[in-house]
Amino acid sequence: MISRYLHDPGRGYWKVVKLVLWYIKGTIDIGLVFEKAFTGKQKCVGYVDSDYVGDLDKYWFTTGYVFILSQALVSRRSILQSTIALSTTEAEYMAMTEVMKEAIWLQGLLDNLGIDHDLLKINCNSMSAIYLAKNQVYHARTKHIDVRFHFIREILDEGDIELLKVHTKENPADMLTKTVSGVKFIHCKGMLHILSVA
Fold first, then answer.
1. How far apart (Å, rounded) are the C-alpha atoms in residues 64 and 55?
2. Domain range 33-196, its CATH number among 3.30.420.10, 3.40.50.280, 2.60.120.560, 3.40.50.1240
3. 163, burial (CB in 10 Å: exposed 0-12, middle 13-18, buried 19+)
4. Quick one: three-class SS letters along 105-150?
5. Is the pLDDT of residue 71 over 70?
6. What's the rounded Cα separation, in Å, for the pair 5 and 20?
7. At residue 23, what are phi and psi to the nearest 5 degrees?
8. In 10 A of CB 65, how many CB atoms?
9. Residue 149 — pLDDT band, cuts 50, 70, 90?
10. According to the model, what pLDDT value does residue 36 have?
11. Of 103, 110, 148, 153, whose Cβ has the fewest other Cβ atoms within 10 Å?
């Protein structure tokens, strides 16, 4: 967020930078902890979230996703999308497109590395976006959505990736798209297995 204002940083932004540095100093002993699952197959799970109109300057939305393998974070992204969504459902659906592309890449990487893994599961907290991805019932109301976003349906039909509903409270990608409370942030870190390694 701070890097968006590099061209003309004011005194308020310098204060925010100091807070970020203070946070980094206080979390030097925090790191990712990987543990191999004792079962034969590794579980790879993704979480996706979107913040509809999180950017009040250009009305773009933020997409965030994380992937967990062996109980630890292996991939994450938080990006301001340069597309304007007309609804929360559309923003979540477009975010699903981003996470599906990453899921396909991760699946290929795991296969190339010879890692035996379960069916890749992606969790989203928007039931309407999940319905839109799995069912073309809402097609008449979503004709304006670019065709490139509808490849989600093909991926789901192939059966290599499963799309599931997750409650917002249990979605660690939440911390990548919006401001969360300290309690929620600590909970999200725990879900991603980001622990003290000291």
1. 14
2. 3.30.420.10
3. buried
4. HHHHHHHHCCCCECCEEEEECCHHHHHHHHCHHHHHHHCCCCHHHH
5. yes
6. 15
7. -65, -45
8. 28
9. low
10. 67
11. 148
The per-residue pLDDT for 143 is: 52
Assess whether pLDDT exceeds 90 at residue 112.
yes
- Helix axes of 88-112 and 151-158: crossing angle, nearest 10 degrees: 50
Q: Which has the minimum average pLDDT: 92-101, 123-132, 133-142? A: 133-142
Residue 47 confidence class, pLDDT cut points 50, 70, 90: very high
Q: Could you give the dihedral angle defined by the CA atoms of residues 78, 163, 165 and 85, in that order, rounded to the nearest 10 degrees?
A: 50
Q: Label residues 15-52 b or e (16+ Cβ within 10 Å = b).
A: eeeeeeeeeeeeeeeeeeeeeeeeeeeeebbbbbbbbb
Q: What is the distance between the alpha carbons of residues 60 and 2, in angstroms, rounded to a whole number?
A: 16
Banded pLDDT at 23 (limits 50, 70, 90): confident
Would you say 46 and 121 are in contact if contact means Cβ atoms under 8 Å apart?
Answer: yes
* Residue 102: half-sphere exposure toward Cβ, Cα within 13 Å: 23
DSSP alpha helices (H): ranges in the chain? 11-26, 88-112, 127-134, 151-158, 182-191
At 125, give phi and psi (nearest 5°): -100, 10
